[in-house]
Protein: Helix-turn-helix domain-containing protein
Organism: Nocardia rhizosphaerae
Amino acid sequence: MGMNVREGQKQLTQEEVDDQPLMLGVPALAALLGLTKQRVYLLLSEGRVGLRTYRINSTRRFSTIEVLRSVGDYDTTELEERLMAKPMYSAAELSRMFGLSYNLVRPMLEEAGIKAIPIGAHPRYSTAAIVKWLGVEPDRRPHTPASTSSEEPGISSCVKTKGGKPIHAGKPYRYAGRVYDGADIIAIAQLLGVA
């Protein structure tokens, strides 16, 4: 999907592309497209911007990855890798990545149907759900090798404790005052696509 922009559109360097937040507001979108904010608002009201709009309170945001793909041949691999670097993110981490305040991120994710996973004191949000919501192509995600070893069944070679020891199915693990079975931890990691 291409967008019509002015001849004087600023071409970004790859370093500028890599430094972008993962969501853009109308002012940043206008600057990127080489248009005025009023022109962008006019195009939005006429439905002539072929980008998915994320409404956050009374503002509109756009996926930086989608915008950069639609306006030119920008390599968004660095942005995608930054997003997919971890299996889960806290709301504070996402607020920094999206360039939004902490108070806007949680309601935005709840409205999008992305459920918080209660882990410890701070709930986390699945990267897989965020990637799907933002429309990042799933086949471009880095693939994690198989999690179990054929020599020792029930032991994960990818899912490890903070100390770096592999998680064993059937063994209890204490985290944030709660006890979890190793098999449950391995299953959750597999559901999240990290094992």
Residues 78-140 form a domain with the Arc Repressor Mutant, subunit A fold (CATH 1.10.10).
